[in-house]
Design goal:
This protein has 15 helices and twelve strands. 41% of the residues lie in helices and 14% in strands. Helix 8 links the parallel strand 7 and strand 8. The protein is globular.
Length: 406
């Protein structure tokens, strides 16, 4: 299924990156008219879909003939690929022969998505095997991996990696994610946020006020936000524990857990219920999800209202929610995992710590010191503009496309 997309103009980003726009347009000239296809599992929910909604129209804006299609698959398929997601990040979970067979059948059926494109970018494990069922040598194939492959379940990786042999390039967020033996085919560049999207653009104060009222968030009290999917790796139980430790010292503090229930993550509903039960009857914990009408604009409003952003994930591919908070000048307190480590500079735009006690201490430090929050917030926005916005991401893709086309 092809995803309908809006229109973007690279010129609109001149107010963010200035003359860098001219460099990007010049870089794209040799790729004018080249047919590019992105394929992933879902058009809504999660960071990959969010990136593609913004990145693909921007590729078109600089002259590429870019399209985006998503898999057609039964629910059982996504149960299997969730196991891939977890085991490729190290979980000890068994995948049965029947599940491998289902995965192969669905990918084979979806090989029809590939048409006359010259470069095909396959995102994450869900559609990876599609490459096996498309013949010919007239295309260049890229596998864009958005998860941490540094310590995979070796049994699953050994079998799954066979699907990747036909790819020309593997792209990861960080070099430390390169699988052993695949370094020559691999490259690393981070994902991005779009500063002009609904999730990150400037908002009217009245809209922010109404959003807070809808979710019963008091704008006059300190607010910790956690933006994360209901996923075991995000460890929302620890986020609640950190909030409870902070609340002992700062009783008026509130916690907003902001999340979208993704269509390709059936396991998410189970964790949602577990987190609700763990929270109990605490009126100062606000659950703000798409089930209650939270869209990108509402996420933006809640993030902009945050005093501190908290991220307690134990494994993280990159963590775009970190860049979102930093771009909005909100300091971040997080565990030093995956791509979080290259976004949060300890003591400069936030703090990194492992234990719940340390995380709580840093949150309290920021809640009590407005001057420090402002200083770290300004540093955070600069970090994102220099490294993690969509125009940097586009430039990295253009350079890679030019390289593999040569």
């Amino acid at each position: 299924m092809e995803v309908n997309l809006g229109i973007k103009n690279i010129e609109d980003y001149r107010k963010v990156i200035g003359e860098k726009v001219d460099e990007i347009k010049e870089l794209a000239k040799p790729l004018k008219g080249v047919k590019i296809l992105h394929v992933n599992a879902t058009a809504y929910g999660g960071g990959v879909a969010e990136i593609l909604h913004n990145l693909v129209p921007l590729m078109r804006s600089v002259g590429l003939d870019a399209k985006w299609r998503v898999l057609e698959a039964p629910d059982g398929f996504f149960n299997v690929t969730k196991k891939f997601h977890n085991t490729l990040q190290g979980a000890d979970v068994e995948i049965s022969e029947e599940e491998w067979d289902l995965y192969d059948r669905v990918c084979k059926a979806n090989s029809k998505l590939i048409k006359d494109e010259e470069i095909v970018v396959i995102h994450d494990p869900q559609p990876a095997a599609v490459r096996n069922y498309v013949g010919g040598v007239d295309k260049k194939w890229v596998w864009r991996c958005h998860i941490d492959l540094s310590t995979p379940n070796l049994e699953v990786w050994k079998r799954f990696s066979r699907y990747l042999t036909g790819y020309d390039r593997l792209v990861f967020h960080l070099k430390e994610y390169f699988p052993k033996g695949w370094e020559e085919k691999s490259t690393a560049f981070p994902p991005s946020i779009d500063p002009l999207s609904e999730k990150n653009c400037e908002l009217d104060e009245q809209f922010i006020k109404k959003t807070l009222e809808r979710f019963e968030i008091d704008p006059n009290k300190p607010l910790i936000t956690v933006v994360a999917r209901f996923d075991p790796w995000k460890d929302l139980f620890s986020a609640i524990d950190v909030y409870r430790l902070v609340k002992k010292d700062i009783p008026e503090v509130q916690l907003a857990i902001v999340s979208a229930m993704a269509t390709d993550d059936p396991e998410g509903w189970i964790f949602f219920e577990k987190v609700l039960r763990y929270t109990g009857m605490d009126d100062d914990v606000k659950f703000c999800t798409n089930l209650k009408g939270v869209g990108n604009k509402e996420v933006n409003a809640i993030q902009r209202s945050a005093t501190v952003a908290l991220h307690t994930a134990t494994r993280e591919g990159f963590g775009l929610v970190i860049s979102e908070a930093l771009y909005k000048k909100v300091p971040v307190v997080a565990r030093p995992v995956g791509g979080v480590k290259i976004q949060v500079k300890h003591g400069e735009n936030g703090y990194l710590a492992w234990t719940k006690e340390e995380l709580a201490d840093y949150v309290k430090k920021l809640l009590k010191d407005e001057r420090l929050r402002k200083e770290l917030g300004e540093n955070g926005k600069k970090t994102v503009v220099d490294n993690f916005i969509i125009t940097v991401h586009l430039e990295n893709y253009l350079r890679m496309f030019l390289e593999i086309m040569r």
